[in-house]
Design goal:
By secondary structure, this protein is an alpha/beta fold. It contains four helices and six strands; from the N terminus they run αβββαβαββα. It has helices at residues 17-26, 68-80, 90-98, 136-142, and strands at residues 35-37, 45-52, 55-61, 86-87, 103-105, 127-129. The strands form two sheets. Strands 1-2-3-4 form a four-stranded mixed β-sheet, with helices on one face. Strands 5-6 form a two-stranded parallel sheet. The radius of gyration is 20 Å and the shape is elongated.
């Protein structure tokens, strides 16, 4: 119900498993039924359900730096009440909240969203930024830089 596009989920009979299954299999498409904390494409928090062979799987998602604190609070609440769930990008979120993560620095010509492909997967970088002009020198001095790739002209 984060932004009203729940595809009718809030109108289901809460005590009817059949109503939920019908909705899940046929009516939940085209909206944001799992968005529990409103945001943009990469800044919202979702709590969604997936059907498995053994039942239902609850998954929490919200790794944006602007939402990670709320996501961790929700994960702690689920854990403390013994509700089984999966936290997407849990390792990366742990690194973010402990201050041991890396932030990918991208050129001014690249929007600092969805830049995963610009960095090695093993570095688990999920947050990106451009150099802040005011603190550029300080950031450059404290940053770890990848080796530059050699560029050679094409010979005929």
């Amino acid at each position: 119900m984060a932004d009203g596009r729940d595809c009718g989920l809030r109108y289901l009979d809460e005590n009817s498993e059949e109503a939920f299954i019908q909705w899940f299999e046929h009516e939940r498409f085209g909206g944001h039924p799992w968005e529990i904390f409103r945001g943009g494409n990469s800044t919202h928090i979702s709590l969604f359900i997936t059907r498995t062979q053994t039942g239902w799987l609850l998954t929490l998602s919200g790794s944006s730096t602007t939402r990670v604190v709320e996501t961790v609070r929700m994960a702690c609440a689920l854990y403390q009440t013994d509700i089984p769930f999966i936290l997407l990008e849990s390792r990366e979120i742990h690194r973010m909240i402990t201050g041991t993560d890396y932030i990918g620095i991208v050129p001014e010509t690249i929007l600092p969203r969805y830049c995963h492909s610009h960095f090695p997967k093993e570095d688990q970088i999920i947050d990106f930024m451009q150099l802040n002009r005011e603190f550029k020198t300080d950031i450059i001095a404290k940053a770890f830089w990848y080796p530059e790739k050699e560029v050679k002209p094409i010979s005929n």
